[in-house]
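Hi V.,

You were right to ask for the full record rather than a summary. Here it is.
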Amino acid sequence: MSLKKFLDAGLMVMGSPYDTKLKPLGSMSGAAQKRQGYADSNGNWTDRGFDRATSTDYQGLEKSRKAVIKTKA
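Predicted structure:
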């Protein structure tokens, strides 16, 4: 199954065989994310972007979330 069909089916990349094969969204430029439909015009991930995110992306988000919580504590 191609990545496009995989995402069209509403499946998440994280934990799938694609997880280790794809470049993390965090390392893609904002323009590339927008062009491929993974981010909206404001740079926020779309539903497709969240589905396309790899484990590496989610680990980065969790690390950022913890840092924000730590600074507010």
